[in-house]
Structures are given as structure tokens and as C-alpha cells.
Amino acid sequence: MAYYSLVASLPSLRIGDEPPVSVEQYIENCSQWITERETGILKAVLLNEPVASPCPLCKTWHNLETQLRNAVARHRGQKLGIDFKEHLQPHEGFNGTVEVLVNEAFTRNDPLELEQELDRARWQLAEELIGEDTFGFSKVLAYGIQLKIVERWNNMDVSVGKEKIEAVITANTEKEEVAESE
Q1: What radius of gyration do the chain's Cα atoms show?
Q2: Mind giving me the DSSP string for 89-157?
Q3: Number of domains making up the chain
């Protein structure tokens, strides 16, 4: 089913911009246009709620996200010299684009830039999810995924981030002091 009015009314999104609505508001707004099952799919993908019935689109996105996370675990494990295999999750299929995007992201030395590249990869994968369904539910779902990314970056707070880093450094310093005193 095509949702011309809904898709045409969606404001453009960019990482770093203020999200026009929250993910929850987006789902609520969409529920006026889409079916109950599709609303359930949005909730499953965007809010991590269980989906009532099998959903090929959910499965596709889940497999892409799992492959991306596995590729990230592999890169981080190799960089740290630890066995990453226990952290890998099963998924169906293989998408070469995911591997290329993650490899590109890991050329970044700055952790912030790395995270931005990984979310740009998710953004691109969401775009590819649309395919030729430009005004269909695939577009509605992909927009929701992109909105979730925009919302994530908008909710980041520099002072909170600094506090978390300081807490990690303090905890690691205390562990080293205890180890040295033994």
C-alpha cells in the first residue's frame, strides 16, 4: 500500500539537527495512516517491542543490524587482541555493503567520528531498505530508523559524556592501585 500523503509530509532529516518529533510521536502520527500490523512493526523495530507475527521487513533490518554489530565486534576484538567470537550473534544472509561501511568507519581514529560513521552506515542501510517502495511502508520504516538516529545524536550531552569518561578513568585508576598494592 502506498502512503503518498504521509511520506510527502515527512520533514527532511539530518544527523546533528533537532528531530522534528520524537520516535514515539512519529509512531503515533503514523498509526493514523498505516495498518495496525504496520504500527506493530514500527514499534518492534524502533522501540524494540516484540512483533506479533513474522515480518520480513523486521527480519531484514534485524539481520543487517546484527551483521553490522558483528563486524564492529570483530574490528574491536582484533584491535584489542581479544577473542571476539563469543560476542558474535547469528544472522541470516550476508550484505557486502555492511562490511565495506564498517571497514570505512574503522579508518577513523577519533571515537566520535567512528560512531558517526557507524550511524551513517545505518542511515544508508535504511535507505537501501526502501528499494523501489518510495511511498510504501518500507519508506515509513526507513524514515523511523533515521529519526531514531537523529534523536540519538540530539540526546548526546557533552557534560554527561565527560562525567562518564571521568568515572571510567577513576574506576580503572582505582583497579590499578589495588592491583599494585597486592
Answers
A1: 19
A2: ---SS--HHHHHHHHHHTT--SHHHHHHHHHHHHHHHHHHHHTT-TTSHHHHHHHHHHHHHHHHHHT--
A3: 1
pLDDT for position 60: 93
In a domain, 164, yes or no: no
Number of Cβ atoms within 10 Å of the Cβ of 74: 17
Contact 15, 150 (CB under 8 A): yes
Model confidence pLDDT, tens digit, residues 91-149: 999 999 999 999 999 999 999 999 999 999 999 999 999 999 999 999 999 999 999 99
Q: Is residue 175 part of a domain?
A: no
Q: Tell me if 106 is assigned to some domain.
A: yes
